[in-house]
């Protein structure tokens, strides 16, 4: 095993720690680790990311469900349309994209290049939200009930995002659960982790039918990430959440700028 691979597997533990501490953000790290450290092609890396983040988030969500933090009704409202969107996008949309996608003069823009740049842009948006660290205020409909229709439509959009770039979309799910469903922030985070887990597995199922997978690599990487989430849940008792989000936001910003430089220049 090379030094680079050792670093990559250590970063797998970090993926779990981040999910355990922040309730999301694992996929933001997983795809760059797989692409730039292990040299896995971008499209295949998003498939692996869906499995790793799905399995790791599922472990975290079990803990949240056990403690009564997850709103299962709102999970269903958001998740069912999201599941449909992510499955269809992974099963039909991503495989149907041409490669190269288009040409800039004589320069081909490949599917991998475009996917990584799009992923980096999403990372920039996530980093901005984390660095600002401004928690959304609760917002219910005039009759005091959750806004189920906008919530379901947002589920469709997040599912499409998950399908295209292999990211769980936690940084989008949490604000929507707070603004449209009126959940307190800690319950929104807990509910988001469950949605991310199932979303990721549904997207992964859309890939299994047309993708050859290296389970000898996926399972050890996932096992280290799951170990990391237990460490993260333990550390969450001691780490101030505001400092954590801001620090992770700056880290994500750095990685996103590196990805854009790498792919465009």
Q: How would you sum up this structure, described in words?
A:
With 265 residues, the chain is an all-alpha fold. The chain has one domain (3-264). The chain has ten helices and two strands, in the order ααααββαααααα. It has helices spanning 3-22, 26-37, 42-66, 72-96, 111-132, 148-165, 170-181, 185-208, 215-235, 241-264, and strands spanning 102-104, 107-109. A two-stranded antiparallel sheet has the order 1-2. Strand 1 and strand 2 (107-109) form a beta hairpin. Helix 1 (3-22) packs antiparallel against helix 2, helix 1 packs across helix 9 (215-235) and helix 6 (148-165) runs antiparallel to helix 7 (170-181). The longest helix is centred in the first third of the chain and has 25 residues, at 42-66. It starts with a helix and ends with a helix. The mean pLDDT is 80.
Outline the low-pLDDT stretches. Answer: none
> Given the C-alpha coordinates, what overall shape results?
globular
Structural class: mainly alpha
H and E order: HHHHEEHHHHHH
Number of helices: 10
Largest sheet: 2 strands, antiparallel
User: What is the residue-averaged pLDDT?
Assistant: 80
CA radius of gyration is 18 Å
Our measurement of the CA-to-CA distance between the termini, rounded to an integer number of angstroms, reads 30 Å
What helical percentage do the residues reach?
A: over 70%
Major sheet: arrangement of strands: 1-2
Number of strands: 2
Number of domains: 1
Strand content: under 5%
Subcellular location: Cell membrane; Membrane
Membrane topology: Multi-pass membrane protein
GO cellular component, one term: plasma membrane
Organism: Fibrella aestuarina BUZ 2
